[in-house]
Amino acid sequence: xxxxxxxxxxxxxxxxxxxxxxxxxxxxxxxxxxxxxxxxxxxxxxxxxxxxxxxxxxxxxxxxxxxxxxxxxxxxxxxxxxxxxxxxxxxxxxxxxxxxxxxxxxxxxxxxxxxxxxxxxxxxxxxxxxxxxxxxxxxxxxxxxxxxxxxxxxxxxxxxxxxxxxxxxxxxxxxxxxxxxxxxxxxxxxxxxxxxxxxxxxxxxxxxxxxxxxxxxxxxxxxxxxxxxxxxxxxxxxxxxxxxxxxxxxxxxxxxxxxxxxxxxxxxxxxxxxxxxxxxxxxxxxxxxxxxxxxxxxxxxxxxxxxxxxxxxxxxxxxxxxxxxxxxxxxxxxxxxxxxxxxxxxxxxxxxxxxxxxxxxxxxxxxxxxxxxxxxxxxxxxxxxxxxxxxxxxxxxxxxxxxxxxxxxxxxxxxxxxxxxx
Length: 422
What we know:
Layout (H helix, E strand, L loop, with lengths): L3 H6 L27 E3 L6 E3 L40 H8 L3 H13 L4 H51 L11 H11 L7 E2 L1 H14 L3 E5 L2 H7 L7 H7 L3 H4 L6 H13 L2 E4 L8 H10 L9 E3 L2 H7 L2 H6 L3 E6 L2 H10 L3 E6 L8 H8 L6 E5 L4 H12 L2 E4 L3 H6 L11
Parallel strand pairs: 3-6, 4-5, 4-10, 5-6, 7-8, 7-9, 9-10
Antiparallel strand pairs: 1-2
Organism: Cohnella abietis
Protein name: GT-D fold-like domain-containing protein
InterPro entries: GT-D-like, GT-D-like_firm
């Protein structure tokens, strides 16, 4: 029989859980990076501690190597603007008393931390030194140009005045005279010693008449390349010519070449018309007459025009008029390109001879060109153009034209720029 009094006094088999009191932990003193919550005394609800009047502490939590760091992050405040990982200026001023200028420098420094040191180093290396070098080079170039211009003006003035002073008699002075005026007056007195040059209209009429009458006519032109070649061991030494004529291999002459020298001298005596330079540079007009005297050539018996007459005829429209209705033979390294341009302009090209491999290739070129039927030959072959033009005119009774670098210009090709390109 069960005793009822024992049932009333018996303890339950499962005891109800006792409430666990949460300890209040200060966020500053906590070792955990987790967000700490405190229990409200009045309501018993857990709310995050906040103090709007308190300056945020700068104490950073210490790391625990045996503990896995928490991934809990504080909730964002809806009324607060998104942070840019830069402390608020107002709070920093209140905490440290730093000036706005100091704060701005710190902000810029913090932003720069997003760029790796390597990138910043290369950026500085790329921009600062290069800009400095470019500036220094520009200043140096300007300074050199100004120095050259100043020296040129002073030298020119000193030279003119010194020459004028030497020629003015000691028993008089001439007011307001310049060296230019004196030279102009002196040249007028010397005109009787001059050699006439055929102008563009005269050259066109002579070429036209030779084409109509089917007479041989060789129009050649002289530049510094031809004159230096003819000056070998006559006016200048080989070493002097090599220093002055480094371009000669491009023009088809490899020094020394005395055969080319003598061949050019023979061609000058046979040419119908010779283009000569107007430049007073030592390797142009002064060298021209020195070479003619050295080879025993009487220049009074030669007929001259300017060495740039090929360009003058083209610019005045006389070249196209001369070539219309005629069969044209094109000779030279740019013969293919030039012939295409001529055909596009409605002209008839009857043949092409290319390339011309220097002075040693003259006889082969002449033999190949003689197989074509043509009225006029345009030759762009450097120094070898002179013997090619003279031989074709003499052998076939044709009109030949030393075309020069006008072929490059008409074909739209770039050629080396230097004094003496003709």
